[in-house]
Amino acid sequence: MKVCSVEKMRLMDKTAIDKYGISDSVLMENAAISVCNVIDKEIGIKERSFTVFCGTGNNGGDGLGIARKLFSYGADVTIVLMGDKSKFAGPSKDNLKRTEKIGIKTISISDIKELDNIIARSDVIIDAIFGTGLARDVNGLYKQVIEKINNSGLTVFSVDIPSGINGNTGQIMGYAVLADFTVTFGLPKFGNILYPGFEFCGKLYVSYISFPPELYNDPSIQSEVTIPDILPERDPMGHKGSFGDILVVSGA
Predict the structure, then answer these.
(1) Which of 187, 184, 75 lies closest to 128 in space, CA to CA?
(2) 2 by DSSP, 3-state: which?
(3) Rounded CA gap, 234 and 237, in Å?
(4) Which is higher by pLDDT, 217 or 35?
């Protein structure tokens, strides 16, 4: 499977929009659907209680779309906005308007203590605070919220990458969400597969959100993850002459 940088994925998004007419709204909607499909596969949706943490960027827009889908599937949903509503723009702003119109409970927090009752009533947390473009350390209220998420004991799904993980290096930017499942879009980013990011992702899913094959076959995407072959079963009648050879390369 190919792997790419955050910058390359942004270019793929732009090409999908500009060349193929696949709008950013369509990409966001497909991302939301793919995350809900994974949730339904792993734990089910109906009669569960979800808290969806949304930042003000596109990752938060994905989270708002996920919240709307979960609500339509019969789940109890609470949205926690991590930032001022005025900062939402484009399809993220559109998704916020939709969630408000259909009556999903939405709150903005200024005091970390407000989260205790919300988390206590939840079964599942959706992390859509920061995406792959995070370039600063997580601190302040964001750090406190992530600490609450990690200490909740609830099942956590992260959108694209766990909040707080650098999308290119996999390094922790001060503090990061420790997810049980992560759904990334298009291709895995380096931060999804490099440690410690890989460990923080939990079980990683890759969702193809309607990019045409030409984008994936771009020769400039040169990094690829190889999956080793599974060792064959050992012949019960075998011996040291038929088991093969081993090469050991070691230091002093």
Answers:
(1) 184
(2) strand
(3) 9
(4) 35
